[in-house]
What does this fold into?
Amino acid sequence: MHIDIYLVMGSAVVGLLVGLTGMGGGALMTPMLVLLFGVTPSAAIASDLMAAFFMKPAGVAIHWRRKTVNTGIVRYLCYGSVPAAFFGTYVMHLLGQSAVAEHRLEILLGTALIIGSVAIFSRSVFVEAPSSSNEPVKVRRLPTIFIGVVGGFMVGLTSVGAGSLILVLLVMVYPTLSNKQLVGTDLTQSLPLTFSATLGTLLFGHVQLGLTSSIIIGSVPAVIVGSLLSSRSNGYLLRRVITGVVLLSGLKYVGVPTDWLGVVAALEIVLITFLTVRHWQRTRDELGESVPETVEGVVTLLPTGLDGDL
It folds into this structure.
């Protein structure tokens, strides 16, 4: 089993960004593996899923202790996401590992990245921060199972979706859940989801032990360090910048020409600037005073982060 020191270093950078910003690792790790290290999409997705399974338990434990997990929603999400994630890995297996199959998987991965990043930007633009309520939340069973199916299948097929798509869909179905409850619930259900997807990748033979070990060695400690440092970073702005990079990666996967990528990047700069200024103004108005930099980057939990302000 060969450990690639450069891959360890690259995974550490991604892990640090995940800890600092709470962004889902699937949207960052897989593009890095494919675009920078030339790893095939199927191997990158499988290895990223296994690494994610090692990063999630600490975050789940913290949310469980803080009682920010809605177990009813978790249960019905898992009814959909667990079998759908396994099925997603099976579909990836059916696609095969030929050059044509890997290209098709790149298109699917790019589509997932585009959907996830657009969902995050859309939430920032159109959806107000959820207002918490003391009243018990009534679980909407069928919509919740449907969210689990959609998110689980996307995660199993592309490793993208647990920290972006599912969270945004939960906001739409449960607008009264606070950010912490949304994130705690999403993160908790993503643990069995990731286990199911990891089991599928092991059974269908996409995992490369050397690659996976290098990712785990680099990313897991870095996520913890990033989480511990997160209160000192400007998390909101950094998350938006990374989301923009993820969108550009997705567009590159699906074959968008370089000139158009430049146009999209310019539009992203304008949008990110607008969103960040608006966020600072709202935070300042809520606090009634100048907002210190540290307020913007507070992440409320450790590994696999997600402070909910996606």
